[in-house]
Design a protein that fits this description.
alpha+beta, Beta Polymerase, domain 2, 7-stranded mixed sheet, 8 helices
Length: 326
């Protein structure tokens, strides 16, 4: 479900820049910040920035890193604050974007009873994740396990978008079977670019999962089954991305060969037609230079030239047809 439709589906809930969610039947919104609640900041403005930096006291360097669209997934610890940066999938609203699907940085910052997530772009994952907590009655009781749940949700959304990419690729393939056009080839190129973004982000998220597992302070805290689910979904998303990428690369190579072959066929036919037309031209030119003066267009000499030209043209054409040069 898209983010806008989810906000509309929740009673008395308008799409906020900053929201607070606490334990209830799953995670439910609350009016003001409470210790231990989840502060979710999407597309922050100056007031949101002031709140998380001054009121909650998170390090400004972490906030700036999340704002960098090219920042890579990682974990940092500074003065008791733990910063986890992951990348989540995102769908572009512009149908003609250079990459219809991309990834965006999503930061998690926590310390004691403060837990903040910041993303500078609207996305579908968070609304779906909150709905999931309500369906499964999941509580925010442990920060590390909650981060693993967010990583699991991101992998699920990677798989959802991969299915959409696969469907669009099949549609493009059917169109290319009818006629090889630049538009469809450009669509394949955009899909391939999206898959490259997915591959890089999924590998980065895998490193984050591995690092979280090996932190001394959390080895006895995290849910083993949950982490296994995260690893399985992440691995499946990465393998699926690699398969789709190989398929699209193979399609691009195939249609590049088809275009090259079609060009060769056209050039061969044009050359063949040129050779056929050269025969009567040569004969007419030869006899035109050596015919008697004062002849008329109706005499036998001219008729011989015409007949010889037609005969040689017919013979040349038959030979080319037998060799399948047409």
């Amino acid at each position: 479900m898209a983010a806008a439709s989810w906000y509309a589906a929740v009673p008395n809930w308008s799409k906020p820049m900053r929201s607070y969610l606490k334990n209830g039947i799953g995670l439910v919104p609350c009016e003001v910040w409470e210790p231990g609640c989840w502060v979710n900041v999407i597309e922050p403005d100056n007031s949101d920035k002031k709140f998380v930096l001054e009121t909650l006291g998170i390090p400004e360097s972490f906030y700036d890193d999340i704002e960098d669209v090219d920042e890579r997934p990682r974990i940092e610890v500074d003065d008791g604050w733990c910063f986890v940066l992951m990348r989540i999938p995102s769908k572009e609203s512009d149908a003609h974007a250079s990459a219809p699907y991309s990834t965006i940085p999503f930061g998690v910052i926590f310390k004691d009873d403060v837990f903040v997530t910041v993303c500078f772009y609207d996305n579908d994952m968070i609304p779906d994740f909150v709905q999931h907590t309500r369906r499964k009655n999941i509580h925010h009781d442990d920060n590390i396990n909650f981060i693993f749940r967010l990583l699991l949700s991101s992998s699920v959304w990677f798989l959802k978008y991969l299915k959409q990419i696969n469907i669009q690729t099949k549609v493009t393939e059917r169109l290319l079977e009818r006629s090889v056009r630049n538009e469809e080839l450009q669509d394949l190129q955009r899909m391939d670019k999206s898959l490259l973004f997915f591959t890089s982000s999924l590998r980065g998220n895998e490193l984050v999962v591995h690092r979280l597992k090996n932190l001394r302070s959390v080895k006895e805290i995290y849910d083993v089954e949950l982490v296994e689910d995260v690893e399985i979904e992440s691995k499946q998303a990465l393998e699926t991305t690699n398969i789709y990428s190989e398929v699209i690369n193979g399609m691009q190579d195939t249609y590049t060969s088809v275009i090259s072959n079609n060009l060769n066929l056209v050039m061969k036919r044009l050359t063949t037609i040129n050779v056929v037309l050269m025969v009567p031209t040569l004969i007419a030119s030869f006899f035109g230079m050596n015919l008697e003066l004062n002849t008329t267009i109706f005499n036998w000499t001219f008729l011989i030239v015409i007949l010889v030209s037609l005969a040689l043209t017919a013979v040349t054409t038959i030979v080319f047809f037998k060799k399948k040069w047409f």
